[in-house]
Amino acid sequence: MEKAFLLHPTEHMNGNLRWHLRNESVQDKISASLNKICSLGYWASPFREGDGITFSKEDYSAEQALEDFKNSFEWIEIEECKRSDFPSKMAEILKRQKYRCTVLVPIRKLWIENSFKIGDFKFWPPMEKDGFSASDHPLFKYCASPSFFESEGQALGQWDGEITREEDLLRYPLIEVNINMDESELLGIANDLNAQIRLLKIASQQADRALDLLRINSCHFKKIEYLPDRAGQLANGFTVAYFIPELRQYKETLLQHIVYPIRTSNNWLGLEAEYTNDPYLEWLAGILKGDVNNEIEMAIRSSIIALSQAFYITYEEVSFLALIFALDGLCLPDANWKAWKHRSYIAAISSGGDIHIYEQDLKIFEYIYSDIRNKLVHSGASFSDIENADFKSVAASIHSLIIRCITVIYQENISSKKELHNLAKKILSQKQFEDCTNKIIDYYDTLKGKVTHFNQRPKW
Fold this sequence. Notes:
Largest sheet: 6 strands, antiparallel
Strand order of the largest sheet: 8-9-10-6-11-12
Number of strands: 13
Order of helices and strands: EEHEEHEHEEEEEHHEEEHHHHHHHH
Mean pLDDT: 89
Shape: elongated
Low-confidence stretches: none
Structural class: alpha+beta
């Protein structure tokens, strides 16, 4: 049975009976119950929004009113409620009700000439007079005035002004994403600042998953200036998104606030992107949207998000460690695998069984881990303290390792940690890989003037 809350009248306010009903078939029940309560001497009128009634009565008795309303609205469970407790009680009910909301998020520093779709993510270019069919744009209805195309500085992807009305969204590339939200999140979309900020965070984070697909495929640590900006972030520091709730009770709304007091923007040129159909990216799009079916897909999602965030970290050492954690988190090595066993395991996955890639990656990963990671973590060093250590080159190498590991997982259809471990063991147990591993260990032993004994070498 649905629930309603009885809010007793006060000296200056009528009483309310508030509910949250989505079944239109109850309208006849509401009308019949209103007739019953009015026959008992109450004045009562339904709210236009359909979420309850307002009422009053001379010589009002709270105890009698509860009985009268229960008898008149017998088809709904009625609970007394203080006005101060009502929002939290209603929010608790609404948390259990999911509804779809389409969100449009503007993107700075992104150049696209055509609309395209990756998984459930849609990308829309800025509206141009001679661009793609304007009627296809989800905000076409706001572009009724021909003067829109005559705005000063309206060149593809170049406009970087504030958004003061819906029409201004058309000057930016947009990401369209559908989000399933608790209705409690939508309840304050019109006038609750905290709710609006929560919604903007959700929109920005979800749209940023779409940008992750472009970042991992088209961006590079050696060309950090060619990054798109974070989803929804404008030059003035505001985060902006346009919400189109599925429920007609909630209006389409343009929201913008300073959601993140401190955010970096270390790009000044931006990314020019296009898209051709790619099953691999479609697979990743589902994972980033949240359609995660196993522990490996969860690891992939976390790793890609960490990799993407590392692009925007201003401190090189922190960015580097975030990338290392992303790689380890993706490959899920056993906690007991240390030193060369750990290094060879990661290199085996990234190689996919190619001996030449394995030899290259094992050398790279040993250098990254022993010569850089260990000095940063255990000696408090910075990149400037480590001779010949170039952050951009090192970060680019880890980026490549992560992408190759994800590609191998996709090609081998790996779905569990056990399957990933078995793949690496199968590769590393081959004689040519054992010989290669020992050759590289001997090389580093000679280079560093030490000896790695037989029982310290990895055995698979």
